[in-house]
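REQUEST
  id: r-88c1
  op: predict_structure
  target: Polymerase/histidinol phosphatase N-terminal domain-containing protein
  payload:
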Amino acid sequence: MSGRWDPHVHSTASDGTDAPAELARQAAAAGLDGIVLTDHDTTAGWAEARAAGQRHGIAVRCGIEVSACVPRAGERPVSVHLLAYELDGDPGAGPGATVQELLEATVGGRARRMDRMAELVAADHGVGVEEVWAHVPPGATPGRPHVADALVALGAVADRDEAFATVLGPGGRYNLPHPVPTVDEVIPAVRTAGGVVVLAHPLAGRRGRVVVREEVEQMVELGLAGLEVHHRDHDAGERVLAARWADAYELVPTGASDFHGDGKPNRLAENTTGADELEELWRRRG
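RESPONSE
  id: r-88c1
  status: 200
  body:
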């Protein structure tokens, strides 16, 4: 392993706008040495991404951005995203059975939420539910970005950013919850399957409530191995704080673009992780 990696990117297998193969091509053109495909709660793009990486001469590894939550006494749980890496050591293998069961339950909950969101949009804009669902690519994990795309097509918002700043953001009419597993379930399951876990954008307050230091410490006790420090949604102060947490708990600090193609302003390779840091993560596999 060598060079610069972008270890948090999305394709049309979830809510990105580029197919896995196109993502690999763009990453090679951007001068990256490698990427890790981390679609939301799915492994659907893994095979295509790997094959394209070989064609374009770029290393492609595969992971999952797992939706999870941190329970809080007397409050709603805090939503978090866990980057599960190195579940694909065998090129023909997928995640372990327990991880797969968690993913299937989450995707089922996402689909039911999509039904509810589509019904609201359809009622508000005088269209059919199927017109909203049409923005979910076949086989993709359905999510709020697809509702945003429907709203853009309807002329209700200019782009995904406006949708997430209004009706799909915190407190927005279409921002509905869906059931997700707790970190106590996800982190041990990933480690049992031979993987390693990084907490994505832990201090991105613009997305909603964020974890506090004590909750990160609890995740470390469960087996958390890394912290995504360098991310577009972290301002300078948040990056400093995340780096301090990483140092305090001996977590591997990472940086990534969280690229979604045209769906977000995030640009491929705008934040990256060095090969040494990734190799240290891989050494910490369950």
